Amino acid sequence: MRRGWFLPITAALGFSFLYAPIISMVVFSFNENRLVTVWSGFSTKWYGELFNDPQMLGAAWLSLQIAAISATIALVLGTLAAVALVRFRSFRGRTLFSGMVSAPMVMPDVITGLSMLLLFVAMESLLGWPAGRGMLTIVIAHSTFAMAYICVVVQSRLSDFDRSVEEAAMDLGASPLRTFFDITLPIIAPALVSGWLLGFTLSLDDLVIASFVSGPGSSTLPMVIFSKVKLGVSPDVNALATIIVGIVATGVIIATAIQLRNRPRKARR
Amino acid sequence: MSYEPTIPPPRRLKPWKAVERGLAKVGISGKALVLIAPVLWLLVFFLIPLAVVFGISLATKQFGRPPYSPLLTTEDGTVQLTLHLNNYIKLFSDSLYVAAYLSSIRIAFIATVITLIVGYPMAYAIARAPDPWRNVLLMLVVLPFFTSFLLRIYALTGFMRGNGLINQFLGLFGIEPLVMMQTDFAVYVGLIYSYLPFMILPLYTTLVKLDASLIEASADLGSRPWQTFISITLPLSLPGILAGSLLVFIPAVGEYVIPALLGGPETLMIGRVLWDEFFSATNWPRAAAVAVAMLAVVVVPIMLLQKAQNAVVEK
């Protein structure tokens, strides 16, 4: 075919557009110079500075906790929603339900953040709960939008797999609940793992919603980074980014490798 | 011949039955059990908040906690409902809001079109790549999505700053440094950069399912590659184009971080207006009215997206 060169070249350009800024960030995190883009020698001092910054470390710890808790809540809710959407073909309000499940995924963050905050304020003055804003309110907000993403991931796995296995279990006398825990859950386990990880990263990444619903003294990592970046150049942010990129890249590469290794085995069966 | 069970004998777990019977007695079916938690959660933390936003957009700013006028007041035993329309009147009469509104839609639209033009060949190249490569490339598309969005925007500033890498590179050829930061140009680059994976993934999903024999048939019948592309590939990938475009357009309309970090003071976007109204002016009712107006723009695209996504998955 004549257009043999066109696709590879555009793809290569596109990928370099995606990766050049990230790679430069990693390289310049080892730069000795305070000016982020002027190279003056190898140094790891920004990493040292990063780990001696109590504000940054505190925010990172808070963010990790919020991410773990909200990913777990979102996993339970998202899986239940996915089961309902895939297995119950018709129930009253299904359209509204499926709309409500997926809408938080695309809703602009400023709307989600503002609406959550106004709800918490109204609830506090009516019910006295939640008292003030902080970790709890951020967890609730993050669970809600992470649930939407997790639901999509679990949904696609649930609709892929062979239902006859479930039917067989039921024919052999297993109750629906037991079938779910003994058959369905192990089959969708990979989707649950990737869904949880997705929820975790989404929570760790969110700036806008957390800014709206957080209270005094509960600044998450993105909030601290944002205020630093707004003030100007800070090389320790490069160091932090490098650490995050390193962790994420390792995780995603391992996950892909496992997927690739499992594939041929499945085909052989 | 002895029988060797390869599958462990089924465990006799009674508790499930007991739990189910107990629930059935109280009149809770399996369906209700699955639905109750997510339905309640979404009702309380998604639907009601939107109603609250609408309600507070009809209040007016006042000092105190909370900083808005109550909608319902009781006076001499009668309940009074006070609604203010001044936020909406301001929204339509103040040229700042109208301009921000229109310019967000324009910026989001142009960014979506460019992202489509950049993303389509990438998605096509990945879909056509030989098998092991396809997964690696797909992973490379997803990887930036998992690294912090904020940090990726920050990385872009390193490229586009006055003494950034692009200008250093241009300087080697004696070209005057370009002003890129704090312009609409930087906002476009930021939007395309952050939302490119959202465009590529649904496009890839439709393109990879495309029946190659159709393209061969078209070529055999004498079509030139671009004719095949226009008459076969493009129409068949329409659901992916629609889903990807909406996935970029909807969040781009309400984007705050990108215009705040990359845009200049003259870059008007509605998400930024809402943010400033809330955090700087602490005018919560006005911010709520801006949110309602923004919702009016995105609600139709969101509904379209749901249709488009179903089409991408089913095809």
Polypeptide structure, described:
The complex is a heterodimer of chains A (269) and B (315). Chain A has 269 residues and is mainly α. Chain A folds into 2 domains: 53-227, MetI-like fold (Orthogonal Bundle); 233-269. Chain A has 11 helices and no strands. Chain A has helices spanning 6-28, 45-51, 54-87, 94-106, 109-127, 135-160, 163-171, 176-205, 208-213, 221-231, 235-268. The two termini of chain A are 36 Å apart. In chain A, 43% of the residues are buried. In chain B, helix 11 (238-253) runs antiparallel to helix 14 (284-314) and helix 13 (270-279) runs antiparallel to helix 14. Chain B has 2 domains: 20-81, no CATH class; 86-314, Orthogonal Bundle (MetI-like fold), CATH 1.10.3720.10. Helices cover 72% and strands 3% of the residues of chain B. In chain B, strand 1 and strand 2 (78-81) form a beta hairpin. Chain B has 14 helices and 2 strands, in the order H-H-E-E-H-H-H-H-H-H-H-H-H-H-H-H. Chain B starts with 14 loop residues before the first helix and ends with a helix. By secondary structure, chain B is mostly helical. Chain B has a two-stranded antiparallel ribbon with strand order 1-2. The chains are: A mainly alpha (269), B mainly alpha (315).
